[in-house]
Amino acid sequence: MPRVVPDQRSKFENEEFFRKLSRECEAFVATGTNLSLQFFPANLHGDQRQVPTREYVDFERESGRVYLKAPMILNGVCVIWKGWIDLQRLDGMGYLEYDDERAQHEDALAQAAFEEARRRTRDFEDRERSHREDLEQTASPTQLACSAVSCLQL
């Protein structure tokens, strides 16, 4: 299953879910949406987590607030959650924004995977056809007739 849908921008612009969350709102939970934001999770090889830059976690922009930016794939669409959280009250505002750059990257990855699958299928079919032709060329007409008769007897 692909990570992204074929026309991400259209889905982002036309689905009510994304239209609602693309407007700055006080709480995503009011829409029934809960996000667990992870910044640069450890990779599968166990390497150390990266420390997020100020672009993603900014405590200095405004006193008492942390400004956050979190890229993700949500329902097959590349988006960035942008918002802030009040450090005293632990509430805040946020919204989703379409991530065109990452969407193009993910589309290219999906297209490459599709082309690779198509190439493998074509290679398999070519090998199968070649194997079948080799069997037909090496088998004598008598062997082919005998094998056909024995298949009919089964």
From TrEMBL:
<dbReference type="InterPro" id="IPR036552">
    <property type="entry name" value="CBF_bsu_sf"/>
</dbReference>
<feature type="compositionally biased region" description="Basic and acidic residues">
    <location>
        <begin position="119"/>
        <end position="135"/>
    </location>
</feature>
<comment type="similarity">
    <text>Belongs to the CBF-beta family.</text>
</comment>
<dbReference type="GO" id="GO:0003713">
    <property type="term" value="F:transcription coactivator activity"/>
</dbReference>
<dbReference type="GO" id="GO:0006357">
    <property type="term" value="P:regulation of transcription by RNA polymerase II"/>
</dbReference>
<dbReference type="GO" id="GO:0043565">
    <property type="term" value="F:sequence-specific DNA binding"/>
</dbReference>
<keyword id="KW-0539">Nucleus</keyword>
<dbReference type="GO" id="GO:0016513">
    <property type="term" value="C:core-binding factor complex"/>
</dbReference>
<dbReference type="InterPro" id="IPR003417">
    <property type="entry name" value="CBF_beta"/>
</dbReference>
<protein>
    <recommendedName>
        <fullName>Core-binding factor subunit beta</fullName>
    </recommendedName>
</protein>
<dbReference type="Pfam" id="PF02312">
    <property type="entry name" value="CBF_beta"/>
</dbReference>
<feature type="region of interest" description="Disordered">
    <location>
        <begin position="119"/>
        <end position="139"/>
    </location>
</feature>
